[in-house]
Amino acid sequence: VNAIAPTGGTRMTEGLIPASVFELLKPELVSPLVVYLGSEQCQDSGALFEVGGGWIGKVRWERSLGACFDPQAGFSPEDVAAQWQTIGDFDGAAHPADSTEALKEMMANLQGYLREVH
């Protein structure tokens, strides 16, 4: 299963973008991607694609390495603020390919505390 994030010239976007651009954002320019994604030829699954105006791009996740907090002791908004720079630092960012990889850092943090309990 794949997903698309389309951009198209529709009644909802009419008047929000210049008319010359609106004319090039025909919704039917999204259809070729939709048909391809549903074909046997397409081997992608679990992907997100942005599409519009004759352009298609595949989106990937990028996540900072984040900051760890003690889930047993809890943490405050002030603790979050103190780690905000680290939370938003994309140096050495991770690029998880799926939700399992996306949860890896959180689960590693939890495992440290689960070992302490048992």
TrEMBL record:
Tagged with keyword Oxidoreductase: yes
UniProt KW Ligase keyword: no
InterPro entries assigned: Peroxisomal_Beta-Oxidation
Keywords, comma-separated and alphabetical: Oxidoreductase
A GO MF label: oxidoreductase activity
Family assignment from sequence similarity: Belongs to the short-chain dehydrogenases/reductases (SDR) family.
Name of this chain's protein: Oxidoreductase, short chain dehydrogenase/reductase family
Native organism: Pseudomonas syringae pv. maculicola
Taxonomic lineage of the native organism: Bacteria, Pseudomonadati, Pseudomonadota, Gammaproteobacteria, Pseudomonadales
